[in-house]
Amino acid sequence: MDFEGRLKAYTSEIERVLRRYLNPEQNLPYRTVLEAMDYSLSAGGKRIRPILTLEFCRLCGGAAEDAYPFAAAIEMVHTYSLIHDDLPCMDDDDYRRGRPTNHKMYGEAMAVLAGDGLLTEAFATALSAEIPAERTVRAAAELARAAGCSGMLGGQVIDLESENRQIPLALLETLHRQKTAALIRGAVRMGAIVGGADERQLEAADCYAEALGLAFQITDDILDVTGDAEKLGKSVHSDERAGKSTYVTALGLEAAKKRAEELTARAIDSLGVFSDADFLIWLSGKLLGREN
User: Could you write out the three-class secondary structure of 27-92?
Assistant: First the structure.
């Protein structure tokens, strides 16, 4: 099968869906914040989370159109987190996806508001879904858990409080289960719920998301050491400068690579309950070998 073509089709579909739910061209008194929101949301990226939402919806028997609001919502939440992550009070980064970060373009105050706007717009978008109300509520609750204190936000807190010290591997894994894997889990579970997944499928989706999320983070840590800034679209060695613990500092480069490979294999093994998971198997391998 033409998996690259399928990936491009998904990405194109997601770009179109995002344009549907966020229109920065409206002549409104608060237009500036809409432009700032759109600046980061339209900056491209891999769109992995919404792709997973659409694909798990399909695997569980649902129509892609039903999952559009949730695919858009998860990307809005992810983008909000990047805007806030780049702020001077967080990681203080100047570039994201090959261009100036949001606060460099719009100022810190507007960047904070742009992130807040995307977070709240995400829930308005998810709750606009025209599917049975019970599925909408369940999926939106997954988004809230993924983004909140027991998910991404909590992981960011651990990350901030762990700067300039080497933390134990167990705490590092907790950090990234929340900061990185939780949002991937939310993306996967939303798609599965919209598609009508049974408990066995949801359990498999959970296993896949956690393993893939951790492998994704380890690859990020490796690329921060070995990657090319031009390909990454952001600076390298930023973790070292910030005094952050990473899988590379905890395990060493070669052991970190092996751990990412093991987790990717675990993610792929969990897909056995689905009858047509070839695209996800291919995508998992592609993410392991990515350069950005």
Answer: CCCCHHHHHHHHHHHCCCCCCHHHHHHHHHHHHCCCCHHHHHHHHHHHHHHHHHHHHHHCCCCCCC
- Give residue 115's pLDDT band: very low, low, confident or very high (50, 70, 90): very high
The encoded tokens of residue 269 equal 């093994």
Query: Is residue 79 within 8 Å of residue 41, measured between CB atoms?
Result: yes
Asked if residue 223 lies in contact with residue 232, where contact means CB atoms within 8 angstroms, the answer is yes
Q: What is the pLDDT of residues 184-212, one digit of tens each?
A: 999 999 999 999 999 999 999 999 999 99
Q: How far apart are CA 30 and CA 42, in angstroms?
A: 19
User: CA-to-CA distance for 40 and 102, rounded, in angstroms?
Assistant: 7
* Separation of alpha carbons 264 and 261, rounded Å: 5
Give the Cα separation of 101 and 112 in Å (integer): 12
Residues paired with 286 in a beta bridge: none
Give Cα separations from 111 to 43, 60, 83 (angstroms): 15, 37, 7
Give DSSP secondary structure letters for 269-285. Answer: HGGGGSS--HHHHHHHH
Find tokens 């592609």 and name the residue. Answer: 286
Task: Specify the DSSP class assigned to residue 237.
Answer: S
Which residue is listed with tokens 């060493």?
252
In the block, which residue shows the tokens 């909140």? Answer: 148
CB 74 within 8 A of CB 53: yes
Q: In which residue are the tokens 């203080």 written?
A: 92
For residue 244, give both structure tokens.
Answer: 């952050």
